[in-house]
Amino acid sequence: MANKAPKILVFSTEKISDPAIDLAGLLKMHYPPTVYSIPLRCSSSVKSRWIMHAFEQGFDGVFIAADGTDCSYGESCVDKTAAIIAQTHEMMKAKGIEPARLKMAALCSVCAEPFVKHMKSFYEALSKTPA
Amino acid sequence: MKNKIGVYVCHCGGNISDVVDVNKVREEAEKIGGVAIAKHTIFACADSSQKEIAEDIKNLGLDGIVVASCSPKLHLFTFRAVAERAGLNPYNYVHANIREQSSWAHSDDKKGATEKAIALVRSAVERVSHSVAMEPVSISAKNITTVVGAGVAGMKAAIELADMGSQVYLIEKAHYVGGRTSQWGELFMPGETGKSVVSYLYQEVNKRQNINLFTGAELVSKKGSVGNFEIEVKITPRGIKKDADTSGLEKAIQVCPVEVSDGFNFGITKRKALMNYHPGQFPEIASIDAATCTQCGKCAEVSEAVDLNLEEERITLQTGSLMITTGFDPYEPEKSEFGYGDYDNVITLPQLERYLELNGQDLVVNGKKIRSMAYIYCVGSRQPEGENKYCSRYCCTSAVHSAIKVREKVPEMTVYHINRGIRTYGKQEVLYEKSSKNGDIYIQFNEDTFPEVSRNGKHTVVKVNDILTAGKELEIEPDLVVLVTGMIPRKDNAIGESLKIPRGRDKFYNEIHPKLRPVETTIDGVLIAGVCQGPKNITESVKSSLAAAAKTYSLLKREEITLEPIMATVDSEKCEACDKCTTACPFGAFEFIEENGKKVARVIESNCKGCGMCLPVCPTDAIELSGYTNTEIEGMIDALTESDY
């Protein structure tokens, strides 16, 4: 992995953060092409096992593009997503995976610029992090 | 597992294929296990391509299809319909977004974009190979639309919706309806004025019992989803008592000590904090501007109609959809931009329109009779640098039209049009012809040689290189310089931020697709119309509002909306009835039943919204979401990591 571009898996959401990722493309805002997204229904539906599976399969970082307070399924999404992250961080520590490889930020449906900034900085941080 | 999958890779004209090597993507797709056929196509959404896909499904017996093209937000339903027409369950089709999330996002890296597109297609094939056939579900929806903004677009949409049978809440932030159109005098086509158009629409709104008009009202928050939104509206009182004796109001306005610039007249006059309505504003009732009123009480001393209790009220409304028609702001030139703010005879086109309305049979600006004038076009539009690169569409026509109106008042007027190419498109061309016949002088510049406005003693001088006479430098000394300013998005974007409406590069609200879904946004049930989505003239604004009215009515008329059949399912064997799913579910979609002597959780389908919040909390991983199962998601992850790139 040392000489390879870091691979980042983004768990986005169909109604909120995935439109922001689309908007980044529409605005021709560039970020590394080794960033891939899998849109889910809601960020609090992501299972820890999926995140762990991504690391096991070779992803260097996982980013949860969370709905935040915009979640159309309710405000509890924020706390629930945070709880999933905390639980997964513990699982990562147990497996010897640096918790910094899993990040979360709330992204609204028009947050194209913040998304690109997150991706660039995460990519850069992962590039400097030893495998 | 599916084993007869069809893959279709779209060029999207050149939008994808200019960056992504679509043939390589097709070749790689062909090698994936289970793929029976892989093709590339110039436009997958074209009728001929849709027919070809449908024929392949029938002739080859395809059991799943993947279309790799633009965002699924544009064409998910197009290709679901193709599958359905060909006898394939629409949920056995999966979309791969290789435009917004590959060719456009990585146009700086063709190799990277191609490798990513290949991975996205592999991932989609993996997902479709595990897909199961599903049938859509229905939920009840309210046939109520809330229209935000009571300008001509909003009022026209409200009237049409009401006539089709919908309940309409029409919310206007100002105390008066009509928006910008109230501010215009005679309109093109001739015979109508802004006032007459607004007056007609306002009367029609009032005739309909199923339209509730709220003025001084602002949408502040939204909950829920399409069909069943709950919105909170803040209402600022007008400050005038209903059914009170208004005979003392004129006096009350006179004694009001607060004097501010009058936005209705674009700052060329002053108004009081207690203000009377302008001709063209409805309802024809005075109002208090709560933002500037000091509540000194002087007005209330002379008029019993004044109510100084300006405490705002908050109400909650249930609505099935939201239509945003909040209009635009006119571009305000920077200080010293073409002499604006430096010289009192440099004004904007909207200000000229108000002078024409206020002046009677002459044109007098700042006490001086105007006998020569020079329009400078494209101020704040088509800017080579910075913001506002777009054309504002209405301003060429409006400027030429105003010049004709000016000459009707002052036949001897000398008029110069210093322009970058006149765009009086369509029927509006007759105005250009009339203006030319009137003797107006057209001078053209380009973006390399902007005109300069300076002062020579008492005279304002416009210097311009006319490209129609081989770049000859001309100097004009007009009595009046009119800056033909364009449209910009509303500076107050509170509604956009509240509803999270996407904005485009021009900062106007962005539709899903300019041709295919021109009034819908990525937020289901939130539509846009009129100038809030980009510059338009009145005719075009009204047309877009009618499109939005038809679209929202077609969505809500059955009071039932078809939703994705995405639902949680419980594996009874794994379930230990720990109750965590019931705590996590915000919709009460779980109950417990006895099954083979064991207490287990069961999903109440009518309550399940398919959010998936229950998935991660289950300690035995007994819950799955259709379309988002462990097999599908982990299969996609595997496919994305298959490449060494």
Automatic annotation (TrEMBL), chain A:
Q: Which domain of life is it from?
A: Bacteria
User: InterPro entries from the xrefs?
Assistant: MvhD/FlpD
Instruction: Provide the alphabetized UniProt keywords.
Output: Iron, Iron-sulfur, Metal-binding, Oxidoreductase
> Which GO-annotated molecular functions does the record name?
iron-sulfur cluster binding; metal ion binding; oxidoreductase activity
- F420-non-reducing hydrogenase iron-sulfur subunit D domain location: 8-127
What is any Pfam family matched here? FlpD
- Full protein name: F420-non-reducing hydrogenase iron-sulfur subunit D domain-containing protein
Name the source organism: Prolixibacter bellariivorans
Q: What is the lineage of its organism?
A: Bacteria, Pseudomonadati, Bacteroidota, Bacteroidia, Marinilabiliales
TrEMBL record, chain B:
The protein's matches in SUPFAM superfamilies, at most eight in alphabetical order, are given as: 4Fe-4S ferredoxins, FAD/NAD(P)-binding domain
> Which ranges form a coiled coil?
none
Q: Which cofactors, by name? A: FAD
The answer to keyword Transcription regulation applying to this record is no
What keywords tag this UniProt record?
Answer: 4Fe-4S, FAD, Flavoprotein, Iron, Iron-sulfur, Metal-binding, Oxidoreductase
Molecular function (GO) terms for this protein are:
4 iron, 4 sulfur cluster binding; metal ion binding; oxidoreductase activity
**Signal peptide coordinates:** none
* Domain 4Fe-4S ferredoxin-type positions: 284-313, 566-595, 599-628
PROSITE patterns, A to Z: 4FE4S_FER_1, 4FE4S_FER_2
InterPro entries, A to Z = 4Fe4S_Fe-S-bd, 4Fe4S_Fe_S_CS, FAD/NAD-bd_sf, HdrA-like
What single Pfam family name could you report for this chain, choosing any that match?
Fer4_21
The UniProt family comment states: Belongs to the HdrA family.
- The name under which this protein is listed is CoB--CoM heterodisulfide reductase iron-sulfur subunit A
Tell me which species this is from: Prolixibacter bellariivorans
